[in-house]
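User: Could you go from structure to sequence for me? I need the amino acid at each position, not a summary. Structure tokens:
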């Protein structure tokens, strides 16, 4: 697959995960509006975004197959760990925009900026540290690998 196709495909997957993350945050804020509500929403959004992005990256970006549930869990843990810095950056921008400008639109704008920067960095980390040896250039389009656990 060409670098342009991979970048476009990654952009689509990142957009989907971002929408899941921010939708979860919005739902959480609407359901719970108590102490630390923004932090609860941020944690829930991050969790749903993480799981969805891992699934999309593993399947559609890196065409990576795992040998067992344990292997998949190990990859997920590695994926989560490589996201530590990028998650801190995303949280910092989201909460920073909330603090500096106030309001939901500012907070979500900070989130989108933070997630975009984070996903660009995360792709390189995952390619070299998580999905090493993956056939990310072997598939074209959104075809899935033959074996999936």
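Assistant: Here is the amino acid at each position, in order:
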């Amino acid at each position: 697959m060409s670098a342009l196709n991979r970048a476009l495909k990654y952009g689509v997957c990142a957009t989907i995960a971002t929408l899941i993350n921010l939708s979860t945050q919005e739902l959480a804020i609407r359901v719970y509006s108590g102490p630390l509500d923004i932090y609860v929403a941020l944690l829930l959004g991050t969790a749903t975004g993480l799981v969805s992005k891992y699934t999309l990256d593993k399947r559609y970006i890196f065409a990576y197959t795992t040998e067992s549930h344990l292997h998949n869990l190990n990859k997920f843990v590695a994926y989560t760990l490589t996201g530590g810095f990028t998650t801190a950056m995303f949280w910092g921008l989201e909460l920073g925009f909330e603090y500096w400008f106030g309001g939901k639109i500012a907070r979500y704008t900070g989130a989108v900026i933070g997630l975009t920067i984070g996903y660009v960095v995360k792709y390189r980390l995952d390619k070299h540290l998580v999905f090493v040896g993956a056939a990310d250039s072997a598939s074209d389009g959104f075809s899935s690998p033959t074996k999936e656990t």
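One structural detail worth keeping in mind: The chain has one domain: 3-130.
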